[in-house]
Amino acid sequence: ESSLRLPAPKDVMVYSYNFRSSLRWSPVKVDRGLVLYTVHFKTGAFNQWDEMNCTRVAQTECPFPWSLKERRWTVVLRVRAELGQVTSDWVETDPFVAERNTTIGPPKLNSVTARSDSLLISVTPPFASEAGDFLQYHVSYWENATTTTKKETRTSNTLFKIGDLKEMTLYCFRIQVELMTHSHLHLLGLQSVPECHTTTIS
Q1: Does the residue 5 lie in any domain?
Q2: What is the CATH number of the domain that holds 77?
Q3: Neighbours of 178 (CB within 10 A)
Q4: Which residue of 32, 98, 111, 118 sits 20 to 30 Å from the alpha carbon of 41, by its own alpha carbon?
Q5: Residues sharing a CB contact under 8 Å with residue 189, sequence separation 6 or more, in sequence order
Q6: Angle, CA 15 vertex, CA 180 and CA 188 arms, to 5°
Q7: What is the tens place of the pLDDT at every residue in 174-186?
């Protein structure tokens, strides 16, 4: 009987970045034939499996459909391999909640304006916010000569200033986003790569 079963997909994981989520897995290798995959999902509210938009597909990734865009829903997914009439066992994921389990990327840096005593910084959030979201930007900055002493500032504005700087001095900064939702969850995003600018002469 076991010879009539395919090996189950391995490394089955939900990948989620800035609330764009997909299920990924490692390909199942067989001697001949093209292995296809089928993905189902169920939500915490309804305990029944539904088809995703990935039924008998060849690729090893299945993006979440628009119907699963609710960030607060608990979603469980499962995938199996199929070859003709032969199938593998289903492999289920752990429950996934985007609001808790997504990875938030750094904000997009639009512009930096150097002045003699400050840097004026404009950023765009890494994702479109929803009602009840509160975004805060954590900015750490340092004088390039003394990388050890970092200063921190926090702001909820997308246009903000790092002040009290020395003139004609190179300063570097990194920014990360903290998302606070109306359900009082705190998600801290990834830090941006350091960006360095020299203040002007007054």
Answers
A1: no
A2: 2.60.40.10
A3: 16
A4: 32
A5: 103, 104, 105, 106, 126, 176, 177, 178, 179
A6: 25
A7: 999 999 987 778 9
